[in-house]
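The data layer described in this paper is built around a simple, fixed record for each protein. Such a record has a labelled line for the sequence and another for the backbone structure tokens. For reference, a complete record is included directly beneath this paragraph.
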Amino acid sequence: MRNRIVVLFALGLLIFLGSCVNTKHNNKIIIALSKGKGSEHYEQYGKWLEENSSKIQCVDLYYIKSKKKIDEILSHAAGIVLTGGPDVHPGRYGREFDTARCEIDPYRDTLEFYLIKYAKLHKIPILGICRGLQILNVAYGGTLFVDIPTDYGTEVIHRCDSDYCYHNVTLDNSRLLYSIMKMQKIKVNSYHHQGINKLAKSLLENAESDDKLIEGIELKNKNQFLVATQWHPERLGDVTSKRLARLFISECLDFYNKKIIQ
């Protein structure tokens, strides 16, 4: 009987340890992606980050429809990435009448507004890319140009059909993004038709294109890491994209280590 109890206890312990490893994704630090599957482009976000660190594992949240499961993943997450994708619903920034000019995913909006709120509450590092920059600005109280060529101008072409279309961006040398990139002028890809109109009061502009359109933002309050770019660093493959990935991952690791100590 004693031997049977010992065996049952050992089996139970193995099952428990196995569930812990699964929750921690093989002991790697979790970075949650608002959407990281569904196409080759979406899968590039996770590949880009994981190529820059063997200590992390990216977890896609978009296809998890259980809020309980999302909360469970977020409770272990050390960082959140708001990835690119369709337009933020214009009703979120007072232009309900402008939906005809937008490609909309209401569930994505709901999910990402929740992630931003969660990250803000728990001070989780957050990185926004393209749509990620736009929804961060809206969530913090700013507005968007629904269509740059129509509403802002065509001095700079911000969106092309080609994968080899670029424009210039100037970084503000007093901002965090400049300290990451270590360059004042960089060449970035052109993949967006929307952009920031009114910047939210709690955010700072850290980069702009030659036509003065905001191309990067960060948080005024330094008690949380928040950086977002209008371009797609995961598709660039240059030194600036590596620097951004590694700095973000470093912030995530610091956040995780402080959380463990607490």
User: Anything to note?
Assistant: The domain at 29-261 is CATH 3.40.50.880 (Rossmann fold). Helices lie at 2-23, 40-51, 67-76, 106-122, 131-139, 148-151, 176-181, 239-261. Residues 5-23 have pLDDT under 50 and may be disordered.
